[in-house]
Amino acid sequence: MIRHVYQHRVRYRECDPMGMVYHAHYVDYLEAARTETLRALGLPYRELEAAGIIMPVVALSLRFIQPAYYDDLLDIVTMIRELPRARLFLDYEVRRHETQELLATGQVTLCFVDRARNRPIRAPKVLLDVLQQALAPSLSTDGQPKRSCLPK
Amino acid sequence: MIRHVYQHRVRYRECDPMGMVYHAHYVDYLEAARTETLRALGLPYRELEAAGIIMPVVALSLRFIQPAYYDDLLDIVTMIRELPRARLFLDYEVRRHETQELLATGQVTLCFVDRARNRPIRAPKVLLDVLQQALAPSLSTDGQPKRSCLPK
Amino acid sequence: MIRHVYQHRVRYRECDPMGMVYHAHYVDYLEAARTETLRALGLPYRELEAAGIIMPVVALSLRFIQPAYYDDLLDIVTMIRELPRARLFLDYEVRRHETQELLATGQVTLCFVDRARNRPIRAPKVLLDVLQQALAPSLSTDGQPKRSCLPK
Amino acid sequence: MIRHVYQHRVRYRECDPMGMVYHAHYVDYLEAARTETLRALGLPYRELEAAGIIMPVVALSLRFIQPAYYDDLLDIVTMIRELPRARLFLDYEVRRHETQELLATGQVTLCFVDRARNRPIRAPKVLLDVLQQALAPSLSTDGQPKRSCLPK
Description:
The structure is a homotetramer.
Chain A: E1 2-9, H1 25-40, H2 45-50, E2 53-54, E3 57-64, E4 73-80, E5 87-96, E6 102-114, E7 119-121, H3 125-135
Antiparallel strand pairs in A: 1-4, 2-6, 3-6, 4-5, 5-6, 6-7
């Protein structure tokens, strides 16, 4: 399993009159965590877009367990358990950094689109390569992605 | 079933470099649609809060089928199928108004919290009353909620 | 002067732990008001973009006088006082609809960019025409823009 | 002068169909930069709120010079030049980290409100103390705030 932790400090604008993070902002947290996971794997999303591939979100779900509060430092944990074919499945946990309490869980499904032809495609080889390397760490010899994307 | 349609015009700030609505904004659309559904039923959320009851989101899911584009007029359809006990379940459809194409579907689950005691409670009677009246239209004689929340 | 009123209902997600609208959202209100002003003048921004012209914001300022609260209905008043050359200047007032209290004032400056060449240009003729007609109402005979953009 | 640099990575959700950061998000960048400036000075905003003091924004202005793009790393520079009395004035620069190009400048004015009485007050002593220490570095002997808030 690929596992990456992205940290986010809760901002004032993200908190609602109940004094807690408004639920929609978790969707933004997951996006930032996803982007940083890809970067840690050595594949910035910007490069995928430059190669003509976009990855729209086709489904997402969130379950809210405990509230996050203003100025909390959050750990957003991204997990990838399998190689994508037509879709990439990501699992998430949001935890309060200090206590590691589980605040929310999430799932996001992405697909792959060839921007020029505006058609869905299979997962591009460049992505499969970095994911395969990170998912099968015994096969990777330089280990560079292991630093921030710890395989378990 | 309670069914309410809320209209939203897609704003520039909601569109991403792919030229389509960024997925997180649908969560905001659902919130606005929910608020207007309650208002149409005769129960503004502001009054619930004033009565010490808050309704946090405990779960949400979204499936994205077709993109929405800048300046599109959207129909956000809220559906309530059953009376809540500890949780209120809402179903959503997002459609392009002009063509009625289905762009996304969603589900949101709310719970009820007594703000003073910070404890979950059952659905408050004031909400059950308006929902029951709208869900069982044959029992309602004045029909006021029927105007904008058409029972089917 | 061109004057157009756009109405916005304050959403929960826009309110902060102080219980009032978080200041950044006023920038979004102004954008929506601007878009609807252009539409009321008969020139949807979408058509300008389709013609290859984009109008980036080059400056904005806001002064906050009184807070807006959850579920308030707001009047966002857009005012255009002069024909643009290289820049279009817009003035705004945000008022609580019910009481007409002045909550905020704003100014936004837009420029015009030819998207293909990525270069600043003068205000396009199609925009000058609709603005001139609305600014000099005695010259307009059909009066269509007067309905929602009352010249004073 | 107090000067603090906060870094922000541009997110996909912040970019518009022009492919650049939508202007409203700069307001959010300034808020995060302001919060981290206070934290670096040793005075988290959360502690001010806990002490019953809120600091609403009373005015803001932004000038946009060059666009920021997706995935850019930005330096948001907060500058405080003088001790506040009834108002705290902050100046900002937004620069592309890599090139140090100036992308935007901003000013934000905050006031101080006693939350219990809902009345404006003068700058609280706890804030004046940390600002004075940082503004007059020769008087500070421990130098702790100098690490991240370099006086010039």
